[in-house]
Design goal:
Length: 544
């Protein structure tokens, strides 16, 4: 009874913490979306969609630490299962985590292939045609049908393509079809969902290479270098205004005697007037920033920003060095391309692999580190998207600007973050494969079978679960995380992730060099563009 009460108390505490974390995530998503969305073009449906999709991305990123914690929590440090963690309870916990993956990954598929595309095309039709709502919904559904078709094709491929091809040459066509349905039924749809999620994860890998790798270098260095002084920029801007005005006067003086301006001069006058409007908008922004209390507060916490920048760059270097050593280990000791560069055990250690076992001795420092890395990955992705904007190859589609971001851009931002979150789990697995597979689990040696493989100290019976030991000898004592099952259903996806890790490292190094060579950012970086209207300055007081 006491054990049941203690377990119930722990469960209640866990649910309370989960509720508080969920509330904090929703509040953050609401503040983030409201901070960047355009007040003049905001729509209720796009706002709700962006907040929900961003919340799903952040909640999904918490799956990995929770999964690792649960498989580790069922065992003691000496390798034995806890009294309450019998076979049925362990199976229930595994099923609960698996259902959590089913739910969140299904929601991600729903958002990526149905909800976000529908809202995006609905808003596009609303901008082009102010007709009735029925025609807008029909047009949006027509375009969304293409995304639904792609999702259906991915699910069908994952569901009915067998992972193990039978060797029987004399099997009939009906037996082959029967085998497909038997595999689908035995996996309970796991393979179909895994294939669809892995396909999206490859796209998320490309987004991570583009945005996250750059954000990991740009965010820390921007915090360290800071921005230019608003007063100094305002002085330079005033000089530019005077120079443009004088140039305009010189051109217009040519027509004082009644002669019309040439076409070349008229084009120059038009360009100079547009340039003058932009400079005057910059003047208003700089004046507002110079007088704002937020600027004074940022100047006061400037030393704290430098400390955070140094901390972030250390984390980025730790992450990159660990990823490089892990990939190098796979290149030298993995089972090859045909297996997706799967590696059994660790031959070349890396800083993160060395740090996690040390932190495991003090609960819950290892989970804090994993959660920190996951959240750091998410926030650097946000920083990379914010700094670069949203691109389609060499064409810039949208800019992410405070208070001026279009609803379509916010929807793209949330979809990209959803895809990057899917890739986060594999990135963490690349850094610490043994830890992601088994957490801090240990097992007991019950026979002398391992004596031929390891020099065993028989007074110490507890061994850390690893890829080789867990699969070859004691799979019943080492519980694999559900994350690992989703990651390695298909070898060709693992091979793509392996080469993607090398590309990620290369982009990070290039981004770090570029960020070091660049000077300080403008205090109104990205806030004023030539295509802005004068009415866009009406909301300055909201931010400055």
């Amino acid at each position: 009874a006491k054990m049941a009460a203690a377990a119930a108390s722990e469960l209640l505490t866990g649910w309370c913490l989960f509720g508080l974390a969920l509330l904090a995530i929703l509040v953050f998503c609401w503040v983030y979306v409201r901070k960047y969305q355009s007040r003049r073009e905001s729509e209720v449906i796009s706002t709700i969609t962006a907040i929900f999709a961003l919340a799903v991305a952040l909640i999904s990123s918490a799956l990995l630490p929770v999964d690792i914690f649960l498989v580790s929590y069922m065992k003691n440090q000496n390798g034995t299962f806890k009294e309450w963690a019998d076979a049925n309870v362990s199976r229930q916990i595994e099923d609960t985590v698996l259902y959590g993956y089913y739910t969140l990954y299904s929601i991600i598929l729903f958002c990526v292939f149905l909800w976000i595309p529908f809202v995006y095309f609905y808003y596009e039709e609303k901008e082009e045609d102010d007709g009735n709502t029925c025609s807008q919904v029909k047009t949006a559904l027509k375009y969304t049908l293409g995304f639904i078709t792609v999702c259906a094709v991915l699910l069908l491929i994952g569901a009915f393509v067998p992972l193990d091809i039978p060797n029987k040459k004399n099997s009939t066509e009906w037996e082959k079809v029967k085998l497909l349905f038997e595999e689908f039924g035995s996996s309970h749809g796991l393979t179909a969902l895994s294939f669809s999620i892995s396909s999206l994860t490859v796209i998320g890998m490309l987004a991570a290479i583009t945005y996250t790798a750059y954000g990991m270098s740009a965010l820390p260095l921007n915090l360290i270098k800071g921005t230019t002084s608003a007063a100094y920029e305002r002085l330079e801007n005033t000089e530019d205004i005077e120079e443009v005005e004088q140039h305009l006067l010189r051109i217009k003086s040519k027509c004082r005697d009644g002669r019309p301006l040439s076409s070349r001069d008229r084009r120059a006058v038009q360009q100079l007037e547009e340039r003058l409007r932009t400079l005057r908008r910059r003047e208003r922004h700089l004046e507002s920033i110079e007088k704002s209390w937020w600027t004074k507060f940022c100047e006061a916490i400037r030393p704290l920003k430098i400390v955070w920048g140094v901390f972030f760059i250390i984390v980025a270097l730790l992450f990159t060095v660990s990823l490089f050593l892990s990939n190098l280990d796979k290149a030298m000791h993995s089972t090859g391309f045909d297996s997706g560069f799967i590696i059994l055990g660790t031959n070349l250690t890396n800083p993160l692999n060395m740090l996690l076992p040390v932190l495991q001795t003090v609960f819950p420092l290892d989970y804090v580190l994993i959660t920190t890395i996951v959240m750091y990955f998410i926030f650097t992705s946000m920083a990379g998207i914010r700094n670069m904007g949203i691109w389609f190859f060499w064409i810039r589609l949208y800019k992410i600007r405070r208070g001026k971001t279009q609803p379509q851009a916010l929807l793209f931002l949330c979809m990209i973050l959803l895809l990057i979150v899917l890739h986060t789990s594999y990135m963490i697995y690349s850094l610490a494969p043994q830890y992601v597979m088994y957490g801090s689990q240990k097992y007991l040696v019950q026979s002398s079978k391992l004596l031929n493989y390891y020099p065993v100290n028989w007074n110490q019976l507890a061994f850390v679960c690893s890829g080789l030991i867990g699969t070859a000898f004691l799979s019943d004592q080492c519980i694999v995380t559900r994350t690992y099952l989703f990651l390695h259903k298909f070898w060709f996806f693992s091979a793509a992730y392996y080469f993607g890790n090398w590309a990620f490292i290369a982009v990070f190094v290039i981004g770090l060099i570029v960020s070091c060579c660049k000077g300080k950012k403008s205090v109104i970086e990205g806030e004023v563009d030539e295509d802005d209207s004068d009415t866009s300055d009406d909301e300055l007081s909201v931010y400055y």
